[in-house]
Amino acid sequence: EDQVTQSPEALRLQEGESSSLNCSYTVSGLRGLFWYRQDPGKGPEFLFTLYSAGEEKEKERLKATLTKKESFLHITAPKPEDSATYLCAVQADSSASKIIFGSGTRLSIRP
Amino acid sequence: DAGVIQSPRHEVTEMGQEVTLRCKPISGHDYLFWYRQTMMRGLELLIYFNNNVPIDDSGMPEDRFSAKMPNASFSTLKIQPSEPRDSAVYFCASTLRGAGEKLFFGSGTQLSVL
Questions:
Q1: Cβ–Cβ gap B43/A99 under 8 Å
Q2: pLDDT tens across the length of chain A (111 residues)
Q3: Exposure of B10 by Cβ count < 10 A (0-12 exposed, 13-18 middle, 19+ buried)?
């Protein structure tokens, strides 16, 4: 069964303190791995798609990387406005367009 | 485009009542997904459609749940009868195949079943 596990569940950082969020996945052939950001009371908002091991994507203070078993979302010198829940999702080759999400990491950045 | 539109924004009902959640996807998108989000289980895929046809409903919890997509611009998720354990935020999302599977989510419907 396809599975996505994110860690940690919650992370509190000081402004400027860099860190990484982890997403481990088990799928029968990866078609794509996705990162989303969710603010309270809103739907998830798309950040990145990664397709193959070794691929990296960047957007402002965020960089996503992918290996054959996991993905990392690196946050460099975060600001309070980066506080949100970050969700990882995967799409398997065998399941057409079915996209499965992890439980997310709640990130809080203190000024 | 106004994005994915869901209604109502909030729904409070009593156990046993029928609940209907509505979704208008982004014009031109050919996939529509219904998800449910709770603190305990995170974001769960319930069902998804391609060109108005249900493709995978294996995530639908039980027969009390049903979903329809009568045309490309409208979908409903119905719960009958509702139970307190159905309380959650229900999200609708749409995408265009070939667009990197970038899902566009609505703002969700907060459902409370008393």
A1: no
A2: 788 999 999 999 999 999 999 999 998 888 899 999 999 999 999 999 999 999 999 999 999 999 999 999 999 999 999 999 999 999 887 666 788 899 999 999 999
A3: exposed
